[in-house]
Each structure stands twice: as C-alpha cells, then as structure tokens.
Specification:
It is globular and about 45 Å long. It has a single domain, classed as Hotdog Thioesterase (Thiol Ester Dehydrase, Chain A), CATH 3.10.129. By secondary structure, it is of the alpha+beta class. It is built from 3 helices and 6 strands, in the order ααββαββββ.
C-alpha cells in the first residue's frame, strides 16, 4: 500500500503545504507504486525518502529482489523530489547501477536534487537497506514543463 505517514515526516524546515499536497497527490495517483507497496517517508524541496518492505512477490527466480523493483523504488523517490517545486517534471534520462543484492528486510531510496533547478533538473538517488548498506545508485535528469503538477 502506498501511504502517507505524517508521523514519520522528520524535516520540519523542509516541509511545506505544497510538499504535503504532493505526497497526497502521489499517494492517490501513482498506481504502480501502490501495487508495488512503496511508502513515502519524507519529502521536501528537491528531496524525498521512500521505503519498501521486501515481500515474496518482489523476488526473482534467483531469490533476490528483482532489479525492476529497486528501480521503481528509486524512480518514485526521484519523481516526488523532482516535482517538489510544483512544476511538472518528467524524466528524460535515468541510469541505475546495482551494487548488492538483497532478499529480505526493507529498502530505502533517498533522492536529492544536485543543482538549483530550471528547465533541467539533476538528481541522485541512493538505495540502502535497513543496515545502511548501499544496494543501488540511480541518477536521473528531468525536464520541467510549463505546467503545474497539481492544479490550485
């Protein structure tokens, strides 16, 4: 289930009404994230942390988390962080490097904006497990359209 857990948002200096609305927007509209079981933990301007509890359905034939699941977790954090300015941002290029496999526990994706965004925004997303071991590194570039992600 893709949920808003306001009791675990720990960034009062980064959180504002727009970001709470953005979390709500993604929780209600990102159907694939719901299906996968991703939860947004924290969000702020140019920042997002999301988590996923690893379940049997996430494992591939080798009994490790399927790469597409790790990619999806990173992509959700990337989407929330890149849209946090209120302007619709769509991915134009992404890359992921898988560094370690896992079969159980939790995965956390933390997305950070690398520069002050204009038309193009660059983001770095690190995926760790609950032991803070680096599982994957995702880099993404978005193009910002001349429209809002959420209408007023």
């Amino acid at each position: 289930m893709f949920e808003i857990k306001t009791n675990i948002i720990h960034l009062p200096n980064k959180i504002n009404i727009m970001n709470n609305r953005l979390i709500q927007f993604f929780a209600e509209n990102d159907r694939y994230a719901k299906l996968t079981g991703i939860e947004i933990c924290e969000a702020g301007k140019g920042y997002c942390k999301a988590k996923l509890k690893i379940e049997e359905k996430h494992l591939n034939a080798a009994n490790v988390v399927q790469g597409g699941v790790v990619f999806t977790l990173a992509d959700v954090a990337f989407a929330v962080a890149s849209n946090s300015h209120g302007q619709l941002a769509l991915a134009v290029n992404v890359n992921i490097t898988f560094l370690k496999s896992v079969s159980e526990g939790y995965l956390y994706a933390t997305a950070n904006e690398l520069s002050d965004p204009k038309r193009l925004g660059a983001y770095d997303v690190l995926v760790h497990n609950e032991h803070n071991e680096l599982i994957a590194r995702f880099n993404g570039l978005v193009y910002r359209k001349n429209e809002k992600i959420i209408s007023d």
